[in-house]
Every structure is written in structure tokens, then in C-alpha cells.
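sry for the spam today, last one i promise. C-alpha cells for design, 378 residues
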């Protein structure tokens, strides 16, 4: 059953927040070829070149490209040799999300508060300095091989962070597609692991469970899953956690776990204030999206009531709509952005709604299952 906890309840303990977060600082992907991946996010998603780190900047074991669009920063990192943590990560998981970095005022306190509550340390607080100031970084492990870094950058004025230099591509300045910031990041975890990770986010990071879906909400003929949405105190950071549920055939979460070879980030939702323009741009630049059958639109307005947008462009682009007590949202899901059926992106425009599109799950999961079937993974 879906349970929505009101914002009045959710703000009740805001003054005891031991881990104040200012939002997502960046998402770092470990990839097989960072130079080409950066080009993909620039050319297909409309990010701009921001900063580069590698042998030329004194970083000997890797190359990293930071790209930015509005408040969204992605870092694409590749190892330069075999036999290290980054190379092993890619060998096992393929391209995927390694770091969900969170912006904090005090990275030392964030590390102290979370590790004393049971988080496993990934990076002890360390200060990185260059001529533009200093950044304090610390980090903890979360599900799978994924980590959270805490980034304190209030005393830094450079392009991205020490170790990087400003990166400008004189040949290519793609125009924005209107993507604004990270709305939420979803983790896929193993059988019976959702509640332990819910507990981790509650106890270690002070998050609250704001929404739950069980297998009755999210079950098509085959693809059952359960999900709980975890949110920090101010609601800037939201991490839904999925686990597979028993269905007739293999759950989409199981397919992910098999091909990612473990738990990891399933999708990153990117916010826009004009989804029709954003999705038109993304499609024109080659981003592939899931499609629901056209019959989805036959009774859409009866289901969701009045919406400001014209129906025709939504139908043409395959954009989904859902309503909750506070408003509605428009959303669309990309196909996986690598050859393994693992990480994908969601494009979301919120018009009051704070939920996640429960009304679309059935149509959406049937679309996912069609793709799973084509891959022979049902
Ligand atoms: Fe989502």
C-alpha cells in the first residue's frame, strides 16, 4: 500500500538533523572510456565541459572529466591501468555510478556523525588545496560498491576541485537541453535487503521513509518489486530503494542485479521545468526512451484530470503523467545508457506532486518487460 507522510510530520525533527545536506554535489560514473563518455553527456544530454583531472594535472592513475548543466554535475572517470579499484569496478559492473556526492557545510562532521552511527568509512576527512582555495572531502560506503562522498566547498572558487583544471573545448559548446538538478537517485538492492538499507539511511544518515510501495502496487504479470523512498530532512536528497519481489518470471530488479553483478544505482532522475522541450532535444540528439502503448493516452485526462500541457506532444514523445494529492508530475525513462541492462535516466517535471509516478508503474513496467523479453531475460 502506498503511504504518504505529510510534510508537517517530516519537518518535525528538522532542528535535530545531524547530517544537514545542501543537495547533490555531483554524480561520478566509473566508465571504460571517460573521454568518450564525456562527449556523450555533452552531445546527447547538453552538458558543458567544466574541468579535467589526469596525468597532466598530477593525477597519475585515472582521467576524470567533469561536465555541468545548470545545477547538475557529472564526473566521468576511467582508470589508466588494470589492477586497481576503478578498473576492477568496471570489470565487474560495467559502466555505472560509483559516487553519489552530497554537498555539506562540514564534511568532517558529516563523516564523524555517520561513522559513529555505524557507517563504514570510504574516505577519512581530507583537505585538498590549490590556488583557488580548499575542498574538504570525506566518504562512506552505501549499497554494493557505491559510496557517498561529503563535499565541503565553501572555501573554494575554482572550476571544480583541487586536482582538476578548467576544461574548455574550443570546438564544441553544446546547447543545454534544460536539465536542472538531480531529483532523486534509485538504488537496486538484493532479496530482503530493502529494509536493512532503509534502516541504514534512517539510523546512519538521519533520513526518513516518506513513501512505500509493495508488490501489490508494483506488480505486472512478471516484474514485481518493492520500494521505499528515503528522504533527508529538507527533502533535497531522495533515495528510493528497490528490491525484487516474487513474480511469475524474473523481476527487472533481478535482471539489473545479475548484469551489474550486485547492488547499485538503477536510475538517476533529472529535473526539468519544461519536459516537452527537454525530451524533444534529448531525442533529437539520440537519447533513447521507453515507449508505452498509445492506448495509455486514451483515458489519460480522465485519470489525471486537467493538465496545463497539450496532450498531443506528450503522446508523440511518450511522456507519462501522474497525479497525487499535491499536484501532478510528468516523467519519462530512458533505455539503459550502456549495453548492460543496468543504469538509465528518468526525466521529470514536477507540478506540485512530490510522489514518483505510481500510476505509471504498470504501463512502464510492461514496457520494461517488453525490452527484457527482447534481451531474453524474462
Ligand atoms: Fe524515479
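last one done:
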Amino acid at each position: 500500500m502506498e503511504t504518504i507522510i505529510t510534510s508537517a510530520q517530516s519537518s518535525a525533527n528538522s532542528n535535530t538533523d545531524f547530517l544537514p545536506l545542501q543537495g547533490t554535489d555531483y554524480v561520478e560514473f566509473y566508465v571504460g572510456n571517460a573521454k568518450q563518455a564525456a562527449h556523450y553527456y555533452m552531445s546527447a544530454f547538453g552538458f558543458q565541459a567544466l574541468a579535467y583531472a589526469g596525468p597532466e594535472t598530477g593525477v597519475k592513475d585515472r582521467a576524470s572529466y567533469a561536465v555541468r548543466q545548470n545545477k547538475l554535475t557529472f564526473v566521468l572517470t576511467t582508470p589508466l591501468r588494470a589492477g586497481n579499484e576503478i578498473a576492477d569496478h568496471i570489470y565487474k559492473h560495467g559502466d555505472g555510478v560509483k559516487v553519489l556526492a552530497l554537498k555539506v557545510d562540514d564534511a568532517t562532521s558529516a563523516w564523524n556523525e555517520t561513522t559513529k552511527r555505524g557507517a563504514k568509512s570510504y574516505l577519512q576527512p581530507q583537505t585538498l588545496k590549490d590556488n583557488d582555495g580548499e575542498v574538504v572531502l570525506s566518504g562512506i560506503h552505501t549499497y554494493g560498491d557505491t559510496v557517498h562522498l561529503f563535499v565541503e566547498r565553501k572555501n573554494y572558487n575554482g572550476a571544480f576541485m583541487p586536482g582538476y583544471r578548467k576544461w574548455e573545448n574550443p570546438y564544441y559548446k553544446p546547447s543545454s537541453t534544460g536539465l536542472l538538478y538531480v531529483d532523486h537517485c534509485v538504488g537496486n538492492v538484493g532479496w530482503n535487503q530493502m529494509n536493512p538499507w532503509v534502516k541504514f539511511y534512517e539510523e546512519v544518515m538521519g533520513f526518513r521513509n516518506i513513501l512505500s510501495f509493495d508488490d501489490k502496487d508494483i506488480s505486472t504479470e512478471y516484474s514485481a518489486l518493492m520500494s521505499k523512498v528515503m528522504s533527508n530532512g529538507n527533502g533535497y536528497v531522495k533515495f528510493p530503494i528497490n528490491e525484487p519481489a516474487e513474480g511469475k518470471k524474473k523481476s527487472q530488479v533481478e535482471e539489473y542485479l545479475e548484469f551489474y553483478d550486485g547492488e547499485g544505482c538503477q536510475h538517476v532522475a533529472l529535473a526539468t521545468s519544461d519536459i516537452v522541450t527537454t525530451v524533444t532535444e534529448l531525442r533529437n540528439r539520440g537519447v533513447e526512451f521507453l515507449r508505452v502503448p498509445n492506448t495509455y493516452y486514451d483515458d489519460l485526462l480522465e485519470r489525471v484530470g486537467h493538465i496545463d500541457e497539450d496532450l498531443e506532444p506528450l503522446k508523440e514523445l511518450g511522456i507519462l503523467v501522474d497525479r497525487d494529492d499535491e499536484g501532478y508530475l510528468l516523467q519519462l525513462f530512458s533505455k539503459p545508457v550502456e549495453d548492460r541492462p543496468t543504469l538509465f535516466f528518468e526525466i521529470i517535471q514536477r507540478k506540485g506532486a512530490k510522489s514518483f509516478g505510481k500510476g505509471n508503474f504498470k504501463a512502464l513496467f510492461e514496457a520494461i518487460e517488453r525490452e527484457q523479453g527482447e534481451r531474453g531475460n524474462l
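Residues 5-14 have pLDDT under 50 and may be disordered. ok im logging off now
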